[in-house]
């Protein structure tokens, strides 16, 4: 039986609530960066708190959807692209493991950032689904930027190759589970209902191939600054050795 516990507020992109969330994300990112420079101990505690919150997003999402009577196989499992980014972000902030930092950086800025700016969300504040959605997407984007700036966990030289392999494996596993369960995780079976970049990538299944090419392009762009910095640092060293 569905419980009518909250009014059906309808979400609109760049509404007052959306802009408020974006502003909070920016303030959190700046605040974490500032603490990292002037109060490293306080920054570490803040990172752990945010990391723990991100790991609690999935059970909180299950609870929120159950509470409003909307829980089903299509939203009960942490299999969306952003769910993987959220779990990686939580681990990155708690443990500073390099692989987790790379996953949240590439997944977060190549995919979750779009979800933060153009949310596939029907429910506005104060619906509980509004809170868990933006805790996930906002937390991922903040963590993705924070790990490579204040935490200085830059992607390793072979990160692009490994991330493409990881993404391909994720898509194969998630696609297989979609076929088995009749779900649409990662939007591999049909596009999100809200307007998104996928609307310009052709019909199913062609847009899935377009997503693969876009992932390669976005990952390459995200990796390019670090390739440039490594080469620039290597030039003076080469010159001195000569």
Characterization of the model:
The protein is mostly helical and 242 residues long. The protein starts with 15 loop residues before the first helix and ends with a helix. Helices cover 70% and strands 0% of the residues. The protein has 9 helices and no strands. The protein is globular. The N terminus and C terminus are likely disordered. It has one domain.
Helix fraction by DSSP (H/I, runs of at least 4): 55-70%
Query: Which outline best applies?
Result: globular
Q: What is the radius of gyration computed over CA atoms, rounded to a whole number of angstroms? A: 19 Å
Total domain count: 1
What is the count of DSSP helices, taking H or I runs of 4+ residues? 9
| Unreliable stretches | 1-6, 238-242
Instruction: Provide the succession of SSEs.
Output: HHHHHHHHH
Largest sheet geometry? none
The portion of residues forming beta strands comes to under 5%
- Work out the oligomeric state of the chains in this entry: single chain
The overall strand count is: 0
| Class computed from helices, strands and strand pairing | mainly alpha
Q: Report, as a whole number of angstroms, the end-to-end distance.
A: 76 Å
- The mean pLDDT is 88
């Amino acid at each position: 039986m569905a419980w009518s516990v909250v009014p059906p507020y309808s979400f609109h992109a760049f509404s007052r609530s959306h802009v408020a969330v974006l502003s909070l994300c920016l303030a959190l990112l700046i605040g974490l960066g500032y603490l990292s420079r002037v109060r490293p101990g306080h920054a570490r505690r803040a990172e752990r708190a945010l990391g723990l919150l991100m790991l609690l997003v999935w059970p909180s999402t299950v609870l929120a959807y159950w509470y409003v009577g909307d829980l089903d196989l299509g939203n009960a499992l942490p299999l969306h692209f952003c769910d993987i980014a959220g779990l990686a972000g939580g681990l990155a902030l708690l443990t500073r493991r390099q692989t987790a930092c790379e996953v949240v950086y590439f997944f977060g800025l190549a995919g979750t950032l779009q979800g933060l700016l153009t949310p596939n969300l029907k429910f506005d504040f104060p619906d509980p689904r509004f809170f868990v959605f933006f805790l996930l997407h906002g937390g991922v984007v903040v963590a993705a930027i924070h790990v490579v700036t204040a935490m200085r966990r830059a992607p390793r030289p072979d990160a692009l190759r490994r991330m493409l392999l990881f993404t391909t494996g994720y898509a194969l596993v998630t696609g297989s589970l979609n076929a088995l369960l009749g779900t649409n995780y990662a939007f591999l079976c049909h596009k999100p209902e809200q307007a998104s970049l996928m609307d310009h990538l052709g019909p199913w299944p062609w847009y899935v191939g377009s997503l693969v090419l876009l992932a390669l392009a976005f990952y390459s762009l995200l990796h390019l600054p670090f390739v440039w910095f490594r080469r620039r640092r290597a030039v003076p060293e080469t010159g001195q050795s000569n």
